[in-house]
Structures are given as structure tokens and as C-alpha cells.
Amino acid sequence: MGGSDVTTAAPFIRRRTKLQDANKNIAIMKLPHKTTKTLKTETNNGVVDTSLKVRRQFTGTLSSAGEITITCSSNETFSGVAEGDYIVSIVSTGSGGSGAVGDVLSITGNNHEGAVIFSAPSTTTLKLDFGANFASHVVKILATITRSTVSSKSKTLNVSQTKQITTEALATARGGVNIGKADVFEVASVHMAANFSTNATTSDTDVTDRFDLDTGQRDNFYDISRIVRKPSAEKPLGRLLVVFDYFSAANAGDFYDVNSYGNIDYKDIPVYSPSRVDLGGLEPDGTFELSDCVDFRPSVGQIFAKSTFKTDLQHNVASPLDLSDTTNGARYSPFSYDLGRSFASSRTNITLSSASAVDSPVHGSSVTGAISFYVGRIDKVFMHKTGQMMVATGIPSLTPTKPKGIDDAIEMFELRLPPYTNSLKDIRVRSHDLSLIHISEPTRPY
């Protein structure tokens, strides 16, 4: 006790963060109809006719008077003053004497100088005045914005991309083999070299059946994809060559929908099974057909090494890119959140075109827009008295009805065509019972 090393006791405050509605984190909205054709309308010049509320983050420094002004685009409108629509927190303190890092500031009422805190000079401009006591503080603002004109983001399928896995540690990693791209569509093949000294080629042993594909799809974002070795599969004994197809996303746009998948067949548009099944929701079976959804999930940045990899590197079997190479490959762990996850261009070797960020929709808010979708139909096949086969086509409808018969013809089959028939196997065929039909022969004179 005593002496120069005595530390005086002092009170401290422990702050804990609590996530509200943590179970409501699926950034996919199911559309009210299946087999969606498009969200675009002819009357709106082929633009998605949809409006929605989103959350957008702004960061800025308060002036010496404690003021900050933020703006949005011409087709957007800031919500009115309401604590639930705005969150303003202090990121770092400046010359003002009030407030501490992490404090959430109220936007209602007047500040300590008597001025109104929240004011909107126009629908696209918002001014916040916290007073001089908060001068030069850096604040983060989470604002609610209504977007009156939105558009879908496009995806491009890049085929026959390759990745070389050069070390045993990477090839046998417990979490799986990192492919280096988000939103992988398909793994065409995985080949294994005889050892870890020579790169694998497509002529080497095909070990595709040893792995399952993790596409990187998550409930609220598109993560880096990987291949995961099956529990009973043997460990790789040599370098691996992974040949795969993946989707690259454009930055322009607000969400993914059926029109985002322009260069693949409708039936091949992916599905997603969330980590939590909403038994009382629109998808009680736990599967989201992405062709029938509005998908707000952002994509993480790709981890191919060069920032201009899309133009100066051609990833193919003949010239694979080695991501484990410390000189030309990834220089950080792709599964590290502090270095390996980015939705913007803040990190070295990650360009804006490599990641795809979106504004988050306001949970529980309404999304309005137009939707065109495919419906089913009932047809009938007849045999005419002339021996010709004829078809009576029904009218497509949500509740299709049977077409009328054809005169002087016998009904042979009834065909029930589902909306957007992907395969002939999907058509339900019912044969007409001909056993009750009596065919009379003319009387012959003897």
C-alpha cells in the first residue's frame, strides 16, 4: 500500500450493444406471385416501376456551429422528423465540449442554443443543427429515404474461371477451399496434381466429386465462395485446379430481380435456402427462387490480386491465377472480416467494380411497383373424324379453365401446363377414357 505506484480508483461506464430483431436479417423480399417475368413496364419506358424506403449512411464533420447538411438525389426524398427514421451517433469528438464517442444524438426539438435541430430546406436536403457545443465532431447519420424510381442491378455470368491451390494447408483447410469470388454459380471441375510442387491441370485426376459447393450466398450478403470437402472424402495429395463460373455484379441499381440474370436461362436462375425457415411467411418450405424475389443483398469485394483484374487478366485453364502466391495472389486472409470483407473500394486491390453495395430497405415498410408474371393454361388434344390430331388451347389464367371441345372430334388428352413450363416433364397429362365410347359399324347387306 502507498508509494508512487498507487492508482486512484475511478468509476467507469460499461456500454453494451444490443441488436434489435436479430432474427429479422434476411435481405430478400418474396414477390406475391411465382414465375415472375419482369418488374419493368412498357408505360415506364422499360424501367422498374417500383418505389421503396431505404436506410442510407452518411458520415461528416459538424461545423464550428455544430451544423451539418446532407443531400440525396432528385428522385429521392428524406423522411420527416422522427427518431425512428434517423440515428445520429458521434464517431469522434472535435473542439466542442459536449458529447462522447458513441453517443446517440436526438434530432427532435431545439438544441442548447434554442435553434431547431432538424430542418429540411427541400425534400432532397436535410440540415441538422446540434449547436456549438458539438463543434467539429465527426458524426455518422443513418437516414431514411424514399426512392421513387429504382432499378435492378445486372449480373454477368463469367464462365471457365480458374483458381490454383498450391499448398497443402490451403487445400485441406477446415473451413473449405476459398475460390476467391462471391456468388459462384457452378464448379465445373476440380483437378488434383500428383504433389504440391507442380500446378494442377485439367489432365490431372478429377476429384470434383470429393467437394460440395458453397456458393457464398448468405441471408444478408453474398460472401466469398468456397468448395468444402465431403466428410468421407480423402484429403488432397497435390495442388488443386478449380474451374468455375461466377456472377459479377454491376454497381448501378438498387437490387437484384429476375431481370438481373440476363445471360442464363430462366430455369437456371439460382435458388437460396436461408439459415432460418419462416414457417409463417411466404416461403414456408425454406427456399427462395431468386427469380421471384427482390434481392437486396450486397456482394463482397473479390480477392483476385490486381485492381484491374477484369481487363488485364484472363482467368482460364491455360493461365490460372494463384491466389496463394504472396507476390501475385491474395495478400490477406479471405476469411478475415477486418481484411477480407469489403463492400466498397476502401481496401488496396479492391476496386469499386469488384464489390457491390446497396441501400438497406426499411424493415416492415411497403414496396410498391408493377409485376408481370407467367400463369398456367389447360389445353386439350382431340382426334377429328378425318383422322387429324387437333388442339384446343385454353386461356392462360391464375385459375385456368378447360377449353371448349371441337366438333366432330374425340377428346384424347387433357394437358395442364404450369406457369413458364421448364420441361415437358412438368406438364400433367390426363388420358381421356375411351372405353365408354361405342363406335357403330354400318350394316352390311348379305
Overall outline:
flat
Number of helical runs? 3
Structural class: mainly beta
Give the strand tally: 28
Q: Output mean pLDDT.
A: 79
Beta-strand portion reads 25-35%
Distance between the termini: 137 Å
What does the main sheet amount to?
Answer: 7 strands, antiparallel
**What value does the Rg take, in angstroms?**
30 Å
Helix content: under 10%
Low-confidence stretches: 303-340, 344-354
Report on this model:
It contains 3 helices and 28 strands. The chain is mainly β and 446 residues long. It starts with 27 loop residues before the first strand and ends in a 15-residue tail after the last strand. β25 and β26 form a beta hairpin. Strands 3, 5, 6, 7, 10, 22 and 23 form a 7-stranded antiparallel sheet that branches. The protein has a 5-stranded mixed sheet with strand order 14-13-17-11-21. Strands 26-25-27-28 form a 4-stranded antiparallel sheet, with no helix packed on it. The longest helix has 4 residues, at 168-171. Among the domains are: 50-147, Sandwich (Immunoglobulin-like); 155-249 and 300-355, no CATH class; 375-431.
